[in-house]
Structure formats: C-alpha cells, structure tokens
C-alpha cells in the first residue's frame, strides 16, 4: 500500500534540497518541534478503513482478533508527512489576519515535517516570534515544545517544560559545548557552529558495508561533499566490477577504503559558522551569490558562496551549499561533464535564490571550461541533442553575461570534482572561497573564448558487393564539416 499512497508535498522536495536556508541568516537562532505531530491530524472517516489493524487481546493468538481503525495519521505511513505539513500550512493561512507576517511565514516556510527552524536579527524579534508562533499553533490544538536557542535571553522567556533538555541550564559564558541536532546536522549552541559527529561502525569490508558507511553521513548542505565523493567513488568502483553485496573488497581498493574510513573520524574537527553575516558588520550594500562548477574523470560538483559587501567596503564570503557527484557509469567526455556541472550550478543557484529570500540578489557563475563558456554564449549554431538540452536548461535560469572564467587553481569546485581527504579540504579554499571574492571589486578582465576546432567525420566501408549507399555516404561525409567540440 505504501507504494501507491500519494505522498503529497513531501515527494516534491528532493532530499538534496533540504536546507532551510532562511534559518541561518540571522544572529539569533530558534529551533522547536511539534509534539506528536502526525497524531494531531484526523483521517477522514471514509479513509479510515485503509488504516485497519488486528489486535489480539492479551496476546492470545488462539482467540479471534479485534479489528481497529486508526483515526489519526500514523508514524510510518507514506502519506503522513504530506498531510501533516498541509494541515500546518493551512493553520498558518487561517491565522494570517490575526498574527504577524513573521509568525505566519515561520509556520509556512520554516518547518521540515515537525522540526521548525528560524533565525532573526535580535533577541526581541525572537521572543516575539516564539510567543506568536505558539499562540498561532494553539488555535489548531498543536503544541510547540523542545525549544532551543543560542540566546539565553530567549530561552528564559519560555517555560522550562517547553524547552529542550539541557536548554534551561544553558550558560553561554562558560563556553561549555551544548550540542543539538538541526535537520540531522550537529549544531553547537555555545559557539553557534555546525559540526559533524560520525560514529564509525564496524561494518564488514563488503559492498554492503561500504554502502552502509557512506550513506550514514548526513550532509544535506554539502559542507563536506568533496570528502564524501571519495567514498562514493570506491563504492562506484565496486559496482562497476559487479561485486556481490557480500563479496569482500578487492585488494586494490582495500587500502583506499581503510584510509578513507580512518579519516572519517577527522570530520569532527570541521566547524562551520551557522550565521552567514557577522554581528559586527552593519549597513549591507549588496548581496551576491557566486556559484562555481567543475568536472573531472572522478566526478563533478558545484559550490555556492554568499558574498556580502558593506558600505564600509568590508567583504564577507560564506559557503552556503556544495554538491559532488560521481561521473556516470557510461563513458563520456570531460566537456560533457563540465556542461553537466554547469547545469547543476544553475539549478543550485536558482534554488538558493528562492530559499534565501534576499532582495536584489546578484548572481555570478564561474567555470574553468572555456568550451562551456563558448556553448553558453553561442547563438549562431545548432548543437547535438545532449549539448542543446543542457544549454537550454542553463539559459532558462541564467544569462550568458552572468558566466565568467576562473582559473583551475582558484576554482573551489575542483575539490568537489575529484574528491579530497579531510586535511586537504580544511586547508583548501573550499570553506573560505577564492581570494579574489574577498577583494573590494571583482576581476573584470574579459576571457576570449577560442573558436572550437573543426572536426571532420569520415566513413570507410568495406563491402564485397556493389553498394550504391557507400558512395552516397562518402559524398556526404567527405564534403561536410562540423564545427563542434569533442563532446
């Protein structure tokens, strides 16, 4: 039944786009939970028969079972998240005339299933938001609890029984690390940073064990995507060699896997600031989103940075999202992979622009492939279907003038395309962004895209019998030139 149940809005959100970006913009962060959320929404009487279950009184299987029907949505049903989210948003819509826009928007936009996250610029805003959000949810008999915040002033205004465990004795002055989970990512409240806590299980050195370990790293924002790519590549190699689920690692892959597995514990040293903008900087002049893309024989990936420029001339760059994918099993060329990376870059930036909700956000796209720049800027000729389709996707959300060239050694997406270990990742420009983004003005030099080389296609046919088609083919290919890259 799970396969045919409509999932609702839950099936429209790709797993790699679970980011809740609005929750990381302000200085004061808030997190809460809807108590027993699925059980707060009733199932229509005509649908309750689909949720029947049998119950044997006192566990006596010799007696006929009793038949019961769930009157509320149950945990584990494919439809429950979508129905509950719809009910939550409907409740916010009904309260739009009675409560502030901030509270309504928080309920509508800042919840992922039952977890709510938000960030505002001051304690007073946070206190008012919590107060109104609780009152709004109370109108629908929904109970918000397990509140946590990086501000003790906010926590002190919430009843102790409504706060998360450990939040009531929070003392930021002591500097003791207080850890919470925000959409699966470790959030250190005292330092207001994200980190990774990975419990390395003793999985067998088989394809099944490798998959279990790689999949256990939950990184929805792609902060450590270049590191995870190394593990994905090892898993892909095992799949390409058609190893069974319980076959041992080949001798040539075992040292690579053991080195990666040992380095997995070092992810805990990585600390990423939660808030995009430092509290000491005021009077923002402009916001920019810079997205870099790259590809190699190992994989392709992108990374996006929010660049904030203040009226004082100071600049702040923050990594907001990264992605890294292994190359397709089917052999293809580097230009095609570079073009695929550009498509992911355009899609990622479009998603971030929608999620960040920043007015007049300027967009920039960077690639170290002059072939890709040539494709995007070319209006004069037709391309092969593969190229044409991807150019259409890129240009549907971006303008050719937004695309720029970056040298390979300065391209942070290079790490996402080939994969790196933890130490190299920390020392690279992956978290800090390229140095030229920190300058007062962006480089303005124009990059001349070279005309692509002419490629001649020919056919040589050997046939015992006279074949008139051969002459037609030779006539066509011998005099025909196509100006296209090796894609």
TrEMBL record:
Pfam families: Peptidase_A17
InterPro entries recorded: DNA/RNA_pol_sf, Retrotrans_Pao
Domain of life where this protein originates: Eukaryota
The name this protein goes by in its record: Reverse transcriptase domain-containing protein
Taxonomic source organism: Mugilogobius chulae (yellowstripe goby)
